[in-house]
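Re: the 376-residue chain
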Amino acid sequence: MTPRDYYEVLGVARNASEQDVKSAYRRLALTHHPDRNQGDAEAEEKFKEAAEAYAVLGDPEKRARYDRFGHAGVANQGGPGGGFNADIFADFSDILGDFFGFGGGGGRRQGPMRGSDLRFDLEISFDESYTGSETTIQIPREETCTTCNGTRSANGALPDICGQCRGAGQLRFQQGFLIVSRPCGQCSGTGRIVRDPCQACRGTGRTTQDRRVTVKIPAGIAHGQRLRLHGEGEHGVLGGPSGDLYVVVHVEPHPAFQRDEDDLHIEVAVPFHVMALGGTFEVDGPGDAISVDVSAGTPSGTVKTFRGKGMPNVSGRGRGAFHVRLVVDVPRRLSKEQKKAIEQFGKTVTVDKLEPSTGEAGGDKPFFEKVKDLFG
């Protein structure tokens, strides 16, 4: 019987990407798996057929030979003529994951294992993010039991090897045409049995401890950035290395500054006469006060930029800019003298028709020249 075209089996085009091939196989494998189709010979055959097709198309070298020579190019290499090999599914654990008992590893790892990483959310003020700081946090983490030194046994002896799985942690058995692995029920998949459990850790070899850790916050750190503290996570198992601690920083917003990467922006209300006649005033920057010079006739919305006065770069590469946006401050309460002065000024300005802003407003004299004449 002539075998079907592998691309047809998986339902993909000949130019399908590696990911498309993998996704197509996964879909077929989950659909036709024997555990979902008990006693269905047709589903079992489709399952084997899809596995055979993926064994070729999922391997770039075999796929190239298949594209060039057809089934003859992959004979005895996972294609027709080589017979169906149940161990092929050990190579598909990245696709099927733990579905239906596929593990691909032949048992739980019994050697040293790295500890788990931990996360801590830290809130800091805007000033702390600007200057940098140092703080101490307290975290609960799993550590090696100091009573049994991680052996899990009260007398410090190593656990016995499980007699049922012989230390593998899993049992293998035939299911139809497949060889399936399941966790050993005798040792709960650990491969070891503790005869006399340690009372301090209840036979787990680990206890939860609250630890104080010092965190150095670099100047310029932004909201949402994280710091990695190597080895400050949970302790490893059987002598394995500790995990890492990731500190996620949350910066409180500043009441006046807006941050854009390393630049800072602020909007200040400037009295009308300063914008009209010019002058100098100070603005509180993130560090020291910044002197702002305003030339006569400065329009509302003007932005003054001060290079190197913004946030420090968290990597130490200079500082951003400090941008000051100037807007006219219109007073809500005026004294009689102020009202009289403005009314007198208003009489000198023609407002019958408003034109686009050009620096002049009515008459033949520039607007701010009239202000100078009135208040000068």
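Residues 81-91, 97-109, 358-368 have pLDDT under 50 and may be disordered.
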